[in-house]
Structures are given as C-alpha cells and as structure tokens.
Amino acid sequence: MNSEKVFTVVNLKEALKTVPRESILSSKWVFVKKEKPKRYKERLVARRFRQIQGINFEETFAPTPTFNALRLLFLTTTLMKWEVKTFDFKVAFLHSFINKPVYMWPPQGLSIPKNHLVKLEKALCETKQATRFWGMHLKQILLEIGFVTNKEDPRTYSFENKEGKALLWIHVDDGALTTSSNTLMTHLISKLDAKLKIKWDQEITKIVVLTIEKRANGYKFHQKELIKKLTLPNPRNITALSPLPHDCKLESNKATQMDKEYLRRIGILLYIAQGSRPDISYAVNYLAIFLMCATTTHWNALEHPIAYLRKTEDLGILILSDNTENKLTCYVDANWGGEGN
Prior knowledge:
Layout: E1 7-11, H1 12-15, E2 26-34, E3 39-47, H2 67-80, E4 83-89, E5 103-104, E6 116-120, H3 130-145, E7 148-149, E8 156-161, E9 164-171, E10 174-179, H4 182-195, E11 198-200, E12 206-207, E13 210-215, E14 218-222, H5 224-228, H6 260-275, H7 281-288, H8 296-311, E15 317-320
Antiparallel strand pairs: 1-6, 2-3, 4-10, 4-11, 5-6, 7-8, 8-9, 9-10, 12-13, 13-14, 14-15
Helix pairs in contact: 6-7
C-alpha cells in the first residue's frame, strides 16, 4: 500500500468540508487460499455500498471481452503455430488514479492519529469506479506501446510491426497474448513489464474460470471445477440425458420478488454456456425467463441442466490444428428435440 501510494492520511474535519459523513467508506481484509499454484493471498477492499453518485463516483461502466474473442485468439495460435502466454496483472486497480474524493475509515492494522482518516489516491478494489479507471489506464498504456483496439470487442487488441503480429485479450486483470514470433513476444513482454507489474504464467492451465488443457495438436477448454461447485438447496439426484426434460413447459406466476439464489445459479450456468458448453444455452436462456417468479416447479427444472452438466462434466470445446476431431456439427433444433409431439 505504501509503495503504490494508495492513500494519504487527512484530518477528519477537513474531509467533512467536502463530503458528507455518510459517504465515508469502511473496508475489510479478504484472505484467499489459492490452489493452483498453492499460495495465500490477501487484499484490502472498500465496502462500496456507502458511495454516493455525484459525490465520490460518477460513471462505472467498463467493457469486458467475450469468450468468442478468447477462442479466436487460441484458434489463431493453434492454426498459425504462434507463441502464446497467459498472465495476470499484480494489484491491477492500484495502477490507476481516482477522479473523485473518496475517503475511508482507517483499515484494520493501520495506525494513524486520532480524528484522521485516509483519502484514496488510487482506485482501490471494490470501489464502484475501480474497474472503469483501471481499464482506461490500461488502454492508454497499450495504445502508447502500439496496440490497436478492436472495434467489435473493446478489450481485445492487435499489434503489428516488422517483427510480426500479435493479439491480446484482457479480462479485468487476466489476459492472454499470442505473437507470430519469439522475438515479438520478448519485445512485447519487455514493453509491458516496463509499464505494469505482471505475473507471466509458466504454463497455460487456466484463465478467468476456464480450464485450458494443452494437447499435442491444440487446446481443450472446459469448466469442470465450476460445474462441481454448482449445488441446489434440495437436490433430487435425478439422471439427465439432455439439458432440459422432454416437453418442458413452464409458466409464470404472480410473484414479483426475484429469487436471488435462483438468479445466482442462472448466472453461473450462463457463464458455463458462454465459456465452454453451448449445448446448455437454450435450456439456460429458457429458465432465465422466470427470474422474477421462480417457484418449486422452476427449481425442479433448473436441476435438470445441473444434473446434465455433472454427468457430462468432461465435455468442453476443442480447438485443434487438424480436422481429426474438429468437424463442424450443426443442430437445427436448439432445444435438442425437447418440445414433444
């Protein structure tokens, strides 16, 4: 925190001249045990629910890249025999400054004078504008290096010079870089390391929530670990051969309150569908219609795609350099024949 100059200590009375007391944030330490590789990680986060729009934040939107763009990057890597590396930015948000006066009560463990607090100078993690300002800061650096933004996907970039071509995919603080030559890879790593603190992975195993398995002729994307974490309050242990039961027809009720647990599981299923399992897309989109009126009937239907995923958890998307396993297959009926007669 000190080396990054995240905050400065200020007098409480002076702070209250510019912001109301109710806008002053608290914070908490978050401790995480990472499994791959095994390590312990701690992070100080702001409790942003006290932020007030117009006082200590304005715009918050920050674009994120698509999984389609990531697959395109690895497809290019595979077919063109390019170099590829994955990485993550260390203390990403602390690289970028903040544009509004955000004050915070002293974090636990920080000793400062009585009647003082801290003023954030950097976009501390979990402040409402942190992701936006980090993205803007990163984009400026990448443009200075020579990268060009992709208009269709604003968090993917391309690069070209006499040493070759490159593609870059960034998801908040995780990324993948592929280059047409070793020389260009070394050049870009040097440029990026000079501007930012980056941890380059020794081998490609995971990015965001996607597990990536290297194969002799390409890659396999799957989300087995995320699938195993999917649980239900009262599971019936059903057997599912398709993402939805045959002739599944659900109805809306008069409920007006969103079921947060139903919503959370739909969100996870959507992430899995977009990441590596397009075969559940229709089922998840159909079940998502009932977010505002989920009943026991809808919960029972929701169990079906979860059971199906667990039965087929080894499935994923293959990106290969030949056509031995990579034949294009099309299905006209998106719900896998589940509409009945």
